[in-house]
What we know:
By secondary structure, the chain is an all-alpha fold.
Amino acid sequence: MTDHLDRFHAALTVLAGHGHIKQRLIKAFEDNLVAIHEDELPIAMKQSFADLRLDMHRVRPLNGEGPICASVRKMSLDEASEIAGRIVALYGEIARQRDDLQTSLPLNEGDETRVPPFLIKSV
């Protein structure tokens, strides 16, 4: 899941960068998210990511352009912004899933919660 979190984070970095929203959306998806398959994601994210992938591949490409470029080209600015927002929401969801997983795991099996010795204030 960490790899997917890193991919979404990289996509957000592109989306937050300079340039036209459509160009940033194409670059964010092609460079970072296209290789993710929804079956690899947590159950809560599968359908949302499948819908995102469908939206990014909904237009048949022309003259050598890819399906992502063709689909984004046909989007309005509002649609492109909405899809960028969905990528941000998916990043938030995968980050929450990872945090929930980490907080539910014990630090050491069989150990009670202990304060490490270096954190104990000496008198």
